[in-house]
Amino acid sequence: MLLIQVLGTGCTRCKTLHETVKKAVQETGVDALVEKVEDIQQIMAFEILMTPALVINGEVKIAGRVPNVEEVKKLIIAAKAA
Length: 82
Fold this sequence. Notes:
Layout: E1 2-7, H1 12-28, E2 32-37, H2 40-45, E3 53-56, E4 59-63, H3 69-81
Helix pairs in contact: 1-3
């Protein structure tokens, strides 16, 4: 199972990324746990400069922007294959 974390403190872009990730997971059918990380200390531990950010299995994949569903699906499929 993949652990997918959406880092952000609840801004509109953070919420959009969370919804995008949920849709991508549903469309790929990959077994994944999607978790919102809103605690600033946990976010800082990933050493990103800007939220929202997408983390898959502990690795930051995207930070500072909201990717589209297709891009997230490619990241999910690649992580599953790894």
